[in-house]
Amino acid sequence: MKSVSGILVVLVLMGIIAPTSQGGESPWPMFRHDLKHTGHTPYTGPATPIVAWSYPTDQGIASSPTIGADGTIYVGVGWYHLFTSFTDSCLLALNPDGSQKWRLYANKGIFSSPTLGLDGTIYISTLAGYLMAVEDSITYGKVNWSTYLEYFFLKSSPTLAADGMIYVGSPSFYFYAVNPDGSIAWQHQTGWCIISTPAIGDDGIVYVGSKDHHLYAFDPELQQMKWRAPTGTFYDGHLVDASPAIGSDGTIYVGTDQFGAQGQTPVDIDTSFWAFNPDGSQKWAFATGSGVESSPAIGPDGTIYFGSYDGCLYAVTDAGDRGILQWKFQTGDAVDGSPTVDGDGNIYFGSRDSTLYALYPDGTVKWTFVAGDGFESSPTIDGNGMLYIGCFDGKLYALGTGAPDVGVTAITVPDTVGQGMSYTPQAMLRNFRAEALSFEVICVIDQHGFVAYTDTIRVSALPGGQSDERLFAPWNIDGVEGGLYAVTVTTLLAGDDNTDNDVLSAIIVVATTPSGILAEESDTSPQRFALSQNYPNPFNPETRIEFVLSAASVVSLKVYDLLGAEVRTLVAGQLPAGPGNVVWDGLDGNHQPVASGIYFYRLAAGPFVQTRKMVLLK
Question: Given this chain, do its domains 405-510 and 530-616 carry the same CATH topology?
Answer without folding.
Answer: yes
